[in-house]
Every structure is written in C-alpha cells, then in structure tokens.
Amino acid sequence: MGFDGADPGTVRPGGRTARVRAAVLQAAGDALAERGFAHLDLADVARRAGVGKTTVYRRWGTVTSLVADLLADMAEQSLPRTETGSLLGDLKANARLVRRTLTDPRQGALFKAVIAAAVCDAKTAEALHRFYDVRVREWAPCVRQAVDRGEVPAGTDPHEVVRAVSAPLYYRLLTSGEPLDEAAADRAAEAAAAAARAGAYLPDR
Questions:
Q1: What is the pLDDT of residue 178?
Q2: Worst-scoring range by mean pLDDT, 57-66, 153-162, 189-198?
Q3: pLDDT 10s digits, 55-74
Q4: Domain CATH for 175
Q5: Quick one: 60 and 123 in the same domain?
Q6: Are residues 47 and 93 in the same domain?
C-alpha cells in the first residue's frame, strides 16, 4: 500500500533508519494532535524527534509526504480484524475499535486534524483515502464470511457494510457533539448488520 511521496518504509526493520522513522512519525503525530495540520512544521518535528532537520527534509521533503507516511504507518500498526463467528459480533468489534481510536485524546485529535486538512489539500485527502481503504479491506472478510454462513444475501458489498459501521461514529465526532460511547458504537454495528441482512448493500439498490 504505497503512498505517494517518500518511501522510508522500505528500509530494513530494526535498523537506524527504522528507528529514525518511528521517532519522526511519533513526533509528527504528537504535533498534529496538539497544533493541527496548519501548524505542522518539519523543523519542529525534527526537534521533537531529536533528529537533524536535514534528515527530515531529505527523507520526507514536505509536510504532506510526512502525513502520508504517518497514515501509512498507522494503517500498518492498527489492530487486526476480530473474528467472533457472527456478523453482528464482528461489526461490534469493529465499531468499538473505531470508537476507542476516535475517543483517544491523541488519536482523536490527530484524525480531526488530518480530516480537516484533507478538505483543502488533495495529497492529504489521497493519503487519508488510502488509509481508510486499507482498514476497510482488513475488515471486509467478516462480511464475506457472513455470506458463506447465510447471514446476509450473496452479493452483499462487504466494503459498504464496513463503511456503514464507521459512518455514524465519524458523524458524531465531527458534527453532532453527541457522546461517542460504546452504546453508540454498538448501535452503529446493529444498524449496519440489520441493513445487510435486509439486502441494503446489494448492487443496484
């Protein structure tokens, strides 16, 4: 899942380059969460990470390339899909994971900052789209398994089902101001599962 821009993830894991990348991405995430995209500065990130400015400028070059790499790393580090044996159980696990991420003080602020930047920056938007594509593809097999078990109709679009779980949670985060609690996560999963069983995510509907 390559992102446009620098490609620091191709180095040997565990080496100095990997350690520098980890430190810089941690610093970039902290800075994003604290100050937002508009105030993200490569020199400040280098200072926070304890590495030379030239290293950061040479490897990432621009703020958008750095954010793209941060999102790529976050997708790689995200927890793997949970398998519970039922579609509703799997979707609840997904919803609760999304909810925990979005209510985390650092992660929630970071996502808000990146989403806000993506509205007016095409490269950041592309990086964000790729992040979510990775996460949706990670969870899509739970819907295919539900089709195999006869829980939902054959032809159900797994990507749409997974997106339907997250959508109400992001709506609460970004627009409503309502509590993003576990009950809200479970309701989102229940609604998506019910809609899938009813055939709402079949093609041409």
A1: 83
A2: 57-66
A3: 999 999 999 999 989 988 88
A4: 1.10.357.10
A5: no
A6: no
Q: What's 85's DSSP letter?
A: S
CA distance 117 to 189: 28
Are 91 and 189 within 8 A, CB to CB? Answer: yes
70 lies in the same domain as 86:
no
Whether 8 and 21 have beta carbons less than 8 Å apart is answered as yes
Q: Is residue 117 part of a domain?
A: yes
Question: CA 127, CA 113: separation in Å to the nearest integer?
Answer: 13
Residue 16 has pLDDT above 50, yes or no: yes
CA distances from 26 to 71, 109, 130, 159 (A): 11, 14, 20, 30
Number of domains in the chain: 2
Alpha-carbon gap, residue 33 to 132, rounded angstroms: 19
Look up residue 147 and give its two tokens.
């089709």
Does 71 or 144 have the greater pLDDT score? 144
Give the CA distances from residue 151 to residues 69, 86, 197, 199, in Å, rounded to whole numbers and listed in that order.
38, 8, 7, 11
Q: Which two tokens stand for residue 29?
A: 């995430």
3-state helix, strand, coil in the chain (%, to 5): 75, 0, 25
- Angle at the Cα of 4 from the Cα atoms of 160 and 161, rounded to 5 degrees: 5
